[in-house]
Inverse folding.
């Protein structure tokens, strides 16, 4: 005998398919929505049904954009430095970097990372168009901002190799070290080693 | 200049309104759905739009039921003991108790808990119908399974007072003590005190 009506079970199952939401959270969210004000559920339903329909991908940097836009706001902004391109794995990384307020160049979203284990090669991510962009002559620096993982590092190395024939393009990557607000005591050995190797003058 | 297209911002905002989902989780879920297979989003959208439309409330125990059902499965099950009624705060609590597989009576969902601070009185929750059910003469025991909080305890006390005039109805409540798998060292003083007071013979 089913304890829960089918529609309730369906919504729990749908929530459970999302990342970071386990069976308990899925139940909690569902029961919350059951007694929440009508507009909270409506809001979510509408936003969900709109998301795929109304978004597209920027033809330059492959970041998310409105469906009717060909080039995203960041790529068409006159006041951003087009000579510096920051390469990230996913659109969410653009958001994170923008929130720092410390980068004023352009972006390039790979939509993935090289991973021989998972069978992801250069053709499976937006690698070719990055090389194309670098070849135009406008780009002076490519900042590799992939995740500090084995795949992210390998992707950075691959980018560096691909762009090596272009003498005017510097390839850099984000610094490794202790996270701000972190505790040296709890830092892992690798991070500590990188922090030591990358130590800088205090001035 | 908006970094994210409006539909993306809308979905993040809609997720943020849900309990236990902060700005970071909301962004992560949204960006996940943007690149997820179409059916994951569709699934969630459909389940959401169905949930309010197709569910109702059981006229006996006030648990969630299908819109077309008057009485829920648990209340109409012949093999469940109608002489024992377990009183819970929310429909999700019924699910949790059913998952234990240790209760074979009926339920009563209060849809809240008495809280003078928040202005919730007996008329704001399903209290009157509980007293009515107890008065029918079929009920021999009412198990108070409200949360072990100040409000939950006060609600239990109120139920006990309301049912005191009915000599044939026992009012009990769930045991307090150490959580199974818990560590005595980390138990708070109150729980330990209750566990001590409620100690039982080993046999």
């Amino acid at each position: 005998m089913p304890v829960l009506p089918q529609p309730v079970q369906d919504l729990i199952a749908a929530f459970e398919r999302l990342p970071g939401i386990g069976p308990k959270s899925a139940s909690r969210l569902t029961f919350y929505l059951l007694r929440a004000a009508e507009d909270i559920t409506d809001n979510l339903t509408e936003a969900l049904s709109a998301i795929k329909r109304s978004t597209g991908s920027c033809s330059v940097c492959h970041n998310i954009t409105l469906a009717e836009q060909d080039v995203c706001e960041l790529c068409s902004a006159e006041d951003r430095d087009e000579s510096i391109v920051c390469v990230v794995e996913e659109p969410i990384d653009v958001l994170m970097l923008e929130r720092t307020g410390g980068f004023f160049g352009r972006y390039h979203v790979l939509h993935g990372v090289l991973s021989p284990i998972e069978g992801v090669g250069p053709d499976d991510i937006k690698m070719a168009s990055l090389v194309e962009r670098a070849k135009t002559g406008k780009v002076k620096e490519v900042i590799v901002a992939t995740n500090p993982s084995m795949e992210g590092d390998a992707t950075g190395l691959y980018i560096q190799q691909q762009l090596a024939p272009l003498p005017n393009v510097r390839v850099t990557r984000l610094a490794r070290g202790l996270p701000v607000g972190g505790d040296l005591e709890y830092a892992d050995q690798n991070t500590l080693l990188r922090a030591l190797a990358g130590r800088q003058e205090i001035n």
Summary: Chain B has two domains: 6-53, 77-201.
